Amino acid sequence: MVFRVLGPLDIEVDGRAVPLQGARQRTLMSMLLLAPDRVVSVDALAEAVWDGSPPATARNQLAICVSALRKTFKKAAGLDDVLVTSHPGYMLNTGEHRIDAAEFERSAALGREAARAGRPQEACAHFQDALAMWRGPALEGVLAGRVEAEAGRLDSLRCDVYEEYAGLRIGLGQHRQLLSELRAFIHENPLREQAIAHLMLAQYRSGRRAEALGTYRSGRLRLAEELGIDPGPALQDLYELILADAPELGAAAPAVTVSAGPAVPTQLPPPVASFTGRRTEIALLGALLGKVGGGALPVGFVVGAGGVGKTALAVRWAHQVAPRFPDGRLFADLRGYDEEEAPRRPGAVLDGFLRALGVTAPQIPADQNERADLFRNILDGRRVLIVLDNARSFSQIRSLLPGTGQCCVLVTGRDAMAGALAGDYAVESLNLGALDENESAALLARVAGDGRLAADPAGAARISALCDRLPLALRIAAARLAAKPHWSVGTLVRRLEDQRRRLDELSPDERGVRASLRLSYRYLAPGAARMFRLLGLLCVPDFAAWAGAALLDIEPAEAEDLVEELVDAQLLEPLSAGTDGQVRYRFQELPRLFARECAYAEESEGDRRDAVRRVYGGWMGLARQAHRRIYGGDFTVVRNPSALHPLPERLVENLLDNPVGWFESERAAIAALVEQAAQDDGAASYAWGLTSFSVTFFQGGNYLEDWRRCAELSLDAVRRAGDPSGEAVMLHSLSTLDIVQWDYDGARERQGLALRLFEEQGERQGCALVLRNTAMCERHQGDLDRAAGTGRESLESFRAVGDLYGEAYMLGLLAQIELERGEAAVSLQLSAEAIVRGRALGSKRGEAQSSVRLAEALTGLGEGARAEEACRRALELVRESGDRRGEAHALRALGEALWGQDRMAEAESVVLEGLSVAREVPDRFLEGRAAAVLGCLLAIRGDRPGALERLRTAARLFADVGAGRRWRERAERLLGAVDMSGPDGAGGGAGAPPDPEELFALVKP
């Protein structure tokens, strides 16, 4: 662990911050850190924590605080011996841990020792290291009086070290570089006479004698005003020497000369032999060349995940453009992400660059800023290409940037840094992604070196996919194949397809895929690291940030920040926003597998289970709310016992402003989550609950394969779990799907099983739903009287359980049945009642369905104008809600209503539109119905060939989907009526149109 007190209190483990909770913990830790390895009494701690007024319960409260801190350290680092109880209080056991204050004092002592031994440059290096540890006033933000007193001692020590450092630098002739530093220091510490003396001497030696005298006068005035004293003897003596222009004050600054070293440094490593593709990316980097000499320094960034080939691309491009930079090519691996070694310090990199440029060792300044100044001076006017590989942050590269636009810099790294340079430099940024399929296959074949991959292109494509088309993974996989001549491509595919072994297969040594991912993971902050590993537990293709909020049980805004940290670290990919406006994210498969490994290694079984269950509950809660918005309440679904995870109301409102659009964004994730829950012991109820709430959207979007897979997986899960209610619900769901797909025999079989289970559970709403489906089957199979009786039984059951939508739906279905029984007046009454019920629920879907049925009844009664009005209302409703299937129904019914008013051209146009929508859905039965109406309209217009083509299409579509016998018979009768109207038919003379009333009677319900 690293403890930092030279600035705000900060604690880290492996680069990840350890959060402290509240001022009390911060004060207690500050007291212990200021006395490492020494016991601090409870009384002293209490006085500090409560600022001299501790309560009677102080001892107990401190014990609780210490216990909480121990748990924090245990969770963050697996350590339980950091805080030790020792009479009469507590002690911080430093052990192998680091405390920056101790390191500061150690470096300062080494600096003083070197200064005494006459080694000023070495002393300056130690002092620089010591001062670099400071991030602000010691323990800034900890307000306890006792802490502030000790922090003041550290601040004073910092000032002492800086003054010693400045004195040595003046002796080394660095007075000009010190001017601005010393002014800033004195501005913050105006009563430090030694610093005033240093500034006066630096000004004098820089030829600014008047400024040096002015500095003395300002210092004397400040000392008099604030302390009522005169400057000390040393400062007064210096003032007199400057007045006298004494010779002993002069000192010439040593000149820096460049030796006859290599005139053109060429540090680029050799290009990767197996480099493949990347033509587009190389062309994009070429834009940097056009900016050379344009004034601002051209700086390019190649950003991407570990193993994506950033270094290989940068080196390949650098070699290609090397002739454009005749004054040299510099290269440095900054080790920003290195497991074995610390990131390189800019000062060390500058030392190497300066030596390569011919500066001799004695002439290289110890100060990093001075090295940077010298570096820029030497490069002024020269054309040099600088490649900074594996950069960790902008601060690591800032000092390495030349000051001239004749040079060019290319930086590679995993974190986006271009924004920090925008406006000051000519920046080009390239986010490097995976190879495409052809490039992946070429790389595999090149590394493997034989014909096995070329002979099995399907296997090669599968290996590419399993490697995420990541160059590092592809090279390792191909090398594995090359080393195993007795393996077939299929052998490697099988080994990689085992998710438990894939990372092992692609991580043969410390340079493999797992190591590359670990380097990105280790630098994540604790919250982002936990988000990463828990997201790895989800088997969804993509997700929005709110899913991360459910995983960690945090606010969505906080979750979005953590997810974006993972994007910045190249561990997640952002996608475009879904139709719900939420940005969606996805894992590549290899990072997801690594995240899952981390979750199993670092999270307890209970924490993993709870996190995933919260996600199930979050998705199911949203699906339930989406269902409620469509139906006006918790109607037409059986109650699910699973616990829902609450999300902020405002978020839910934003997400579900358009429920259909939300489902479009989430459909693939929901289907995957159902599969995961179905395979998760104890989560079967989430599987069938998500499926049940999603049925309307599966049906409305014609996602019938997703519907069937979710329902069948859930059915298997509830049967394994012994959940009869869930089994009945999924049997009912599958029976509904059977009806949609015209499999009435299969539907009736499932309905019988579901009804028995519902009756055994006393689940009346479930019984009502099964009876509804049974009535639909009986209607489609032509048994209208039985359908009417079953439908009324279902209606009464819905009324008994208070399912208002179910009641409205059954009123509409009964209206349809009565219309087909020839009872148009009864149908009209039932449709009107259904509309009233649907409107009262605020259900656009229900009102639209009933309005179409009302229109059909009105059309049958010859009231075309009222039918048109009902259809246009239905169209308005379905278009508002994005219900394309409902739109196809409404357009076909509107066409029939216009036909009934002899507005044939309008009718034909509307039905054509309905036919187009039915194809888009797609729904072959709706397409068949629209084609049948259109065929009739064409026949009436006299276009007999066009009419026959449409009617044959309708007949074929009805047969393809397995529609009921009456629909097939209707299509055949329509074909017969039109065919008979031809020149050889029995219907009259050549080309005589059929009887419109006959066709109208055949096509209407």
What summary fits the major beta sheet?
A: 5 strands, parallel
Q: Please estimate the helix content.
A: 55-70%
Low-confidence stretches: 252-263, 984-990
* Multimerization state: single chain
The Rg value, from CA coordinates, equals 40 Å
Tell me, briefly, the overall form: elongated
Report how far the terminal alpha carbons are from each other: 78 Å
Q: Give the strand content.
A: 5-15%
Number of discrete helical segments: 45
The structural class is mainly alpha
Average pLDDT taken over every residue: 86
Task: Write down how many β-strands occur, each being a DSSP E stretch of 2 or more residues.
Answer: 15
The spatial strand order of the largest sheet comes to 9-10-11-8-12
What is the fourth-level CATH superfamily of the domain at 1-172? Winged helix-like DNA-binding domain superfamily/Winged helix DNA-binding domain
CATH topology assignment of the domain at 1-172: Arc Repressor Mutant, subunit A
Broad CATH class of the domain at 1-172: Mainly Alpha
- At CATH level 2, the architecture of the domain at 1-172 is Orthogonal Bundle
